[in-house]
Write a structure and sequence with these properties.
Low-confidence stretches: none
Largest sheet: 4 strands, mixed
Oligomer: single chain
Mean pLDDT: 94
Structural class: alpha+beta
Strand content: 5-15%
Helix content: 10-25%
Number of helices: 6
Shape: globular
Number of strands: 6
Radius of gyration: 16 Å
Distance between the termini: 29 Å
Number of domains: 1
């Protein structure tokens, strides 16, 4: 049983805090600003990063205090990840919540935090602007589709 990775043998609610945090692959896609169509509920990603997103490391600049600093920052939990439609399809939390396995490039599988970047999954080099530098009415001009897709190089190990 110990040969089976924790994310395959435990429910999200059973994970330790360390295990929970390690499910984040460090892609930064969830930290892109998104727009939701009020009529359809469809979510559109933009290439506008949260003001706390470090676009090089793809990590939060103030993770511990993010909810106090960013009003609409959603803390992921075992209770909400299965229902958050805006989480990218590659998200480790989303995958595990829906009974799927992690991809080869996830650091827990590869053993290397840089594979998420090498596979083209992360937002590194793709965040065009920070939310603090753009008016919200201009977000519509920044809609992109790549955060909902898998780049070709992510589909198999290098």
């Amino acid at each position: 049983m110990d040969d089976v990775p924790f994310w395959q043998r435990k429910s999200l609610a059973e994970l330790s805090a360390t295990e929970w945090e390690s499910l984040c692959d460090g892609c930064g896609r969830c930290c892109l600003n998104k727009l939701e169509d009020e009529d359809t509920g469809r979510v559109y990603y933009t290439d506008v990063g949260c003001r706390l997103l470090d676009a090089t490391t793809c990590r939060c600049k103030d993770y511990r205090n993010r909810s106090e600093q960013v009003d609409d920052c959603v803390k992921l939990s075992p209770d909400n990840v299965a229902d958050l439609k805006w989480l990218p399809p590659t998200c480790g939390y989303r995958l595990v919540a829906h009974g799927r396995d992690l991809y080869w490039w996830h650091p827990l599988v590869s053993g290397d935090p840089d594979t998420v970047h090498a596979a083209g999954i992360s937002v590194r080099g793709r965040v065009a602007i920070s939310e603090q530098d753009l008016a919200i009415e201009d977000y519509e001009d920044r809609i992109v589709s790549w955060p909902t897709r898998m780049p070709p190089r992510s589909k198999r190990p290098a």
